[in-house]
Amino acid sequence: MRPLFPRILAAVEVARLPVAFGVVANVWLMVLLARVEASAAATSAAASTATSASTSASTSASTSASTSASTSAFDTIDAVTADATVAAALSDSAQLIAALPVWLALGASMAFAVGFMAFGAALNDALDAKRDRAFAPERPIPSGSIAARRAFHIAFAALVLGVLGALPFGTAALAGALVLAAIVLGYDAFAKHIPAFGIVLAGLATAASMLALTPDSPSLVPVWLAMSQTMGVGALAYILGEKRPKLSRRAVLLGAAGWGFWSAALFALALERNGGFGADATLLPAFFERSLLVLPVLAVIVCALFGLWKLRGVRGPRAAEKLLRYGSLWKAIVAAGWLAAAGLATEALAVAGIAIAITALLSIARELAPQAAAPASWRS
Q1: How far apart are CA 345 and CA 320, in angstroms?
Q2: Which residues contact 182 (CB under 8 A, 6 or more apart)?
């Protein structure tokens, strides 16, 4: 029997667990934005109550109401479930998430994200076992570190974990999880072998993972940016990795058309959910601080420059692997930028700090134990 530790390392590599935090960060972003949506509505309702009280009641009553209105956004979040008027102005997912304890919302959403990430990665390796024996013999299955049937077991267990993680968020989230499972299955089974289709479907998997738990969220620009990043990084990694078949001009045009179609769909939906298509329509909810929206943009620019620096002098499949690995870090850093723009500075620092710490630990692990190095994402 093989030693236990190498078998554990092989299972971790097959599931891509060390780099799953980029997916977790994106899902946490949507859950936390739903709570901000709820707390902003509760604070607005409290402020309206205070204004009404100051007009019709005594100074002491007014002062008390004003003090209540100034309470922390997350302290007033219970008003969402208690006030029917406030609840009516919210998306269904925001109402549901506001009623969940923070630890449950974040814990369940992490299980959902890790589960579906591991499901896609393990299923990908299991289905590619025969091909990897010829073209990537160092992979865990062809190298004998783990059996193909064990990879299928990991994929099934991960899928169950992902679905269980979606349960606290209601039936709509469960339906979203099933849609995500279908997208991942379609990508792993056949789409990854058709470059234009596979790259677009990988982007849709990112969008679906972010929207599964919050399907009616008005915060769709972060989803669009994450989807675009997945498609862009995936296309560049495909080219750098010199994969076959090569990206033809037709494939590039089809991929660009797919990105354009889904971008237009997300922007139209964002406008519809943030005031309709009138003159006062916006792409983002009002709780975002407009002056801080530069933060996610800066995060994208900094991450792109960091990627160029890390890829200097590197070519071929190694460059593609590094690009995908650091792409996981970029997702978390950009998510932190969005959180900061929504007024969640502490949460933003926590997400960015965890991402940087994981990246540092992975670098140390690759130096100390090469078997622990893990590819960053679903391979195309």
Answers
A1: 33
A2: none
Sign of the dihedral defined by the CA atoms of residues 279, 285, 184, 301, in that order: positive
Specify the residue for token string 């296309």: 235
Rounded Cα gap, residues 259 and 330, in angstroms: 20
DSSP 172: H
17, 362 contact by CB (below 8 A): no
Which among 317, 310, 320, 313 has a CA at the least distance from the CA of 363? 310
Q: What percent of the chain has pLDDT over 70?
A: 77
Distance between CA atoms of residues 44 and 51, nearest Å: 11
Q: Tokens 């969402």 correspond to what residue?
A: 80
Handedness of CA 339, 343, 345, 350 (dihedral sign): negative
Average per-residue pLDDT in the chain? 82
Number of neighbours of residue 13 by Cβ within 10 angstroms: 22
Q: Which of 152, 267, 261 is nearest to 197 (CA)?
A: 261
pLDDT at 256 over 50: yes
Tally Cβ neighbours within 10 Å of residue 164.
14
Q: What are phi and psi of 67, to 5 degrees?
A: -60, -40
Nearby residues of 133 by Cβ (< 8 Å), 6 or more positions away = 142
Place of tokens 């959403």: 109
Is 50 exceeded by the pLDDT of residue 197? yes
| Contacts of residue 75, Cβ cutoff 8 Å, sequence gap at least 6 | none
pLDDT band at residue 59, thresholds of 50, 70 and 90?
Answer: very low
Q: CA-CA-CA-CA torsion for 118, 184, 164, 377, nearest 10 degrees? A: 30
Out of 2-16, 178-192, 333-347, least confident range: 2-16
